[in-house]
Amino acid sequence: MTEQQTPIALNVDDITVTYNNGHTAIHNTSFKLNGGTICALVGVNGSGKSTLFKSIMGMVKPNTGSVTLNHLPVTQALKQNIIAYVPQTEEVDWDFPVLVSDVVMMGRYGRMSFLRIPSKEDKKQVDIALERVNMSELRHRQIGELSGGQKKRVFLARALAQQGKVLLLDEPFTGVDVQTENAIIELLKSLRKEGHLILVSTHNLGSVPEFCDQVVLFNRTVLATGPTKTTFTPQNLMVTFGGALRYLSLSGEKLHEDEDTRMVSVLTDDERAAVFYGEGKDDSPHNNLLHEQFRKK
Ligand SMILES: Nc1ncnc2c1ncn2[C@@H]1O[C@H](COP(=O)(O)OP(=O)(O)OP(=O)(O)O)[C@@H](O)[C@H]1O
């Protein structure tokens, strides 16, 4: 079977990760996703989202359980360039003297010989990737000279140049303006149409129903997973955010097709998605996180 014909599938099967210091960051975590999906990974700070990404990428080895991509173990999937990862901005050394186009070319390394001499095809894919994230004009800039949003787009371009059908994005919207966020969302939607499987962690709850068709609600293990319409409910979000979430309004399509609208209210298109929180005196990290989101509006 050729790469194009292979149905895309990610299977995380009962993984547990304990770091060397004895901390079990995630446990008994299982979910399955197929191509043509954008899935949101949602959870409080420290709930283990990055650890989950790193486990899928084989950067952290689970103590138990397994991750397979297209029924292949991660190590083989990586060799076949099936999967690309956009890490959190803080995990990258921005002082490293390298040009934007060089960073994007790194996405092609897995397809080059050990001499790493770019072919015509490599250069073409870098051009296409830069164009798709609207960064062609800045291709000769040093990476350290870019703004936060531009850096995100360069790393997205690197993942696109890799031409992996599975994309993992760790908080791609943190520190980016609304225009850039919308541009990234539109790009992800077109990748979904092309059959990509996209798993994206985000703290921006309001935009999840706008572009994610699946969700994984997470706190060290999967709390709920399934279609956004039926899973991204106020009740499930209450559980995910430790009960700090008092009231939630979501824009986008109707979340419930039946009569039971529960706490979900549907806003008109021009109303921005909004997440409201109670005025309680709860100073827990959960509550502070939610208030922080509210302030950003
Ligand atoms: N290398 C490590 N060694 C030991 N503990 C770690 C390591 N990396 C992360 N942890 C711990 O594992 C837990 C999960 O961290 P992780 O970064 O996966 O969470 P997260 O959900 O991505 O958080 P955030 O939303 O803040 O980015 C945290 O308690 C963190 O302190």
TrEMBL record:
User: Which Pfam families has this protein been placed in?
Assistant: ABC_tran
The record's InterPro entries line, in alphabetical order, gives: AAA+_ATPase, ABC_transporter-like_ATP-bd, ABC_transporter-like_CS, Metal_Ion_Import_ABC, P-loop_NTPase
Note the superkingdom of the native organism. Bacteria
Family as reported in the entry's similarity comment: Belongs to the ABC transporter superfamily.
**Origin organism lineage:** Bacteria, Pseudomonadati, Pseudomonadota, Gammaproteobacteria, Orbales
Identification of the protein by name? Iron/manganese ABC transporter ATP-binding protein YfeB
Keyword Transport present in the record's keywords: the answer is yes
List the residue ranges of the region (Disordered).
278-297
GO molecular function: any one?
Answer: ATP binding
Keyword list (alphabetical) reads:
ATP-binding, Nucleotide-binding, Transport
Specify the ABC transporter domain's residue ranges.
10-245
